[in-house]
Amino acid sequence: MYDLRVLRDNLDGLRDQLGPRGKDVAWEDLRKLTEDRRTQMVQVEELRHQLKKGSEEVARLKRDKQPAEYEMAAMKGLGETIKGREDQLRLVEEQLAHIALRIPNLPHASVQAGQQAADNLEVRRWGTPPHLTGTVRTHWDLGEALGILDFDRAVRMAKARFAVLTGMGARLERALINFMLDVHTTQHGYREVLPPLLVNRAAMTGTGQLPKFEDDLFQLRDEELFLIPTAEVPVTNLHREEILAEEALPVRYTAYTPCFRREAGSYGKDTRGLIRLHQFNKVELVAFAKPQQSYEELERLTSHAEAILQGLGLHYRVVTLCRGDMGFSSAKTYDIEVWLPSQQIFREISSCSNFEAFQARRANIRWRPKAGKKDAKPEFVHTLNGSGLAVGRTLVAILENYQQPDGTVTIPAVLQPYMGGIQKIERS
């Protein structure tokens, strides 16, 4: 949420800066509520001043042993008036917050204009597509033929967009999780976290999932708890309402969790396979940095996600998302897209974003400069996160890129120690 002073003093400037990115914001309602809040605050402060002066007069009369019944009754009535006005002010502030929480983050100056994926800019590529002979099969055909993927049973026990991994499929998923966590903790310097899979409304609001994206979330029926759509939510909220020491920054965490999404806006997309499920596994990277460090940290975090694909020998590219294709909370995002031979296209496997102070302001996460500095008041940190990586999509890429003409799948060398030395997946 933006500072209320920005909404009060620079609403038109903010609207112009967001451009089409702010098309869904009720700007005129916001303007009226901002003006109402300002007017009512002035009125409430004036009434409080009157109450203070009147209370002082009542105290003086009592000290002088003079009648004060009339003044006391007047102050009681004034107190009730103030309470009513404060209730009105609270209602206006709630309505104001309801709209303000739906204003997306401002893009960084380096982010290009554009409204769709076609406007994204490719930054770099790594590796080359594999040379596959024979018929190139999809990951779902390969998985079902090998007996490691089962979609029909998943539908019977749940519904569409769920999957069952069995045998070497389940083992490969587990191997990928362990490989990713090991690399990020032992080589990249992240601290591992195992957070709750259920979080409250405040946590979801802090990272920007609420209130705008409530339809995409799974919520418990009888409690104000939500299944997490990504580990970004609980891990970012580790430091909610906290002040971090300057010398502790940057702080870096990694977490493996299942993730849960309704995929409410993706009807008809990726209905087959593992690309777009309601439940999937992901290893997340989260960082907290000083504002002057955060874009350097974004490059670092992105390189760590890339390192996993490089270790697996998977061809990929990195693109900068345009303003219209970025997520709600992001100021700048790199998407990492892995090559899928069956479709002859790159598909997203990680998004690495700098949110600047957008999430920190909503969750009240600050840092305090070292003592002795000229301005040592706490400031909002910058938060960052990225997938390091989406595990199911990585499994998809391995099945398709390492498929063999006989229907088996070679296991990348770095994963073989996690697979007990097994070198290939074949029908058992």
Q: How does this model look, in words?
A:
α3 packs antiparallel against α4 and α5 packs across α12. The chain has 2 domains: 97 residues, Helix Hairpins (Orthogonal Bundle); 309 residues, BirA Bifunctional Protein, domain 2 (2-Layer Sandwich), CATH 3.30.930.10. With 428 residues, it is α+β, with helices and mostly antiparallel strands. The protein is 38% helix and 20% strand. Strands 1-10-11-12-15-9-8-4 form an 8-stranded mixed β-sheet. Strands 7-13-14 form a 3-stranded mixed β-sheet, with no helix packed on it. The chain has 12 helices and 17 strands.
| Rg calculated over all Cα atoms | 27 Å
Instruction: Give me the oligomer status.
Output: single chain
CATH superfamily of the largest domain: Bira Bifunctional Protein, Domain 2
Low-confidence stretches: none
Give the SSE order as H and E letters.
Answer: HHHHEHEHEHEEHEHEEEHEEEHEEEHEE
Task: Outline the secondary-structure elements.
Elements: H1 4-9, H2 11-18, H3 27-63, H4 69-100, E1 121-126, H5 139-146, E2 149-150, H6 152-157, E3 164-165, H7 168-186, E4 191-193, E5 198-200, H8 201-207, E6 225-227, H9 232-236, E7 243-245, E8 251-260, E9 279-289, H10 294-312, E10 316-320, E11 332-340, E12 345-354, H11 358-363, E13 366-368, E14 379-380, E15 382-390, H12 391-401, E16 409-410, E17 424-425
Parallel strand pairs: 4-8, 7-13
Antiparallel strand pairs: 1-10, 2-3, 5-6, 8-9, 9-15, 10-11, 11-12, 12-15, 13-14, 16-17
Helix pairs in contact: 3-4, 5-12, 7-12
